[in-house]
Amino acid sequence: MYINKAMVYGNLTRDPEVKSLPSGMQVCSFSLATNRVYKDRDGKKQESTDYHNVAVFGRQAETCGQYLKKGAGAFVEGRLQTRSWDKDGVKQYRTEIIADRVQFGPRGGAGGGASEGGESPRTASSPSKQQDDAGPLSYPEEEINPEDIPF
Is 118 strand, coil or helix? Predict the structure, then answer.
């Protein structure tokens, strides 16, 4: 069995670009920056940044192009794919994440972020408000008996 899975959370380094393929399908491309903090041999705190190219297809591509902006946080889940082409006789390579799912990070702005407003990330595959109109969840007061669980 083979596994090709990538999960990355980071900030967009540029505004997303949405283009149409000849078939009419939309494709959105953007780049995410992820940070890693570690201690070097001397015990000093170091930080490094990695950049990841992301491609999203279909309806999710349109939604990403509409709602994501430079600096916004996003969680991307997908697979790695490397493309190659010849440019002036030199073989070029590009490895990118082909996203199956994109979740948007907390929205900033005048209302504040997730720490103030308590907003949960929205998913590009289902951008509609599911729990917003229903109010907060309420849980039963009584204890749950494990024997009542059907599995």
Answer: coil
Q: What is the CATH number of the domain that holds 51?
A: 2.40.50.140
Looking up tokens 């006789």 gives: 89
Q: Which tokens is 62 given?
A: 């349109």
Q: CB-based contacts of 35: which residues, under 8 Å, 6+ apart? A: 10, 47, 48, 49
Helices (H) and strands (E) in the chain, counts: 2, 7
Residue 75 lies in a domain: yes
Q: Which amino acid is at 138?
A: S
Contact 28, 97 (CB under 8 A): no
Domain range holding 93?
1-37+47-109+120-126
The reply to whether 42 falls in a domain is: no
pLDDT tens, position by position, 36-74: 999 999 999 999 999 999 999 999 999 999 999 999 999
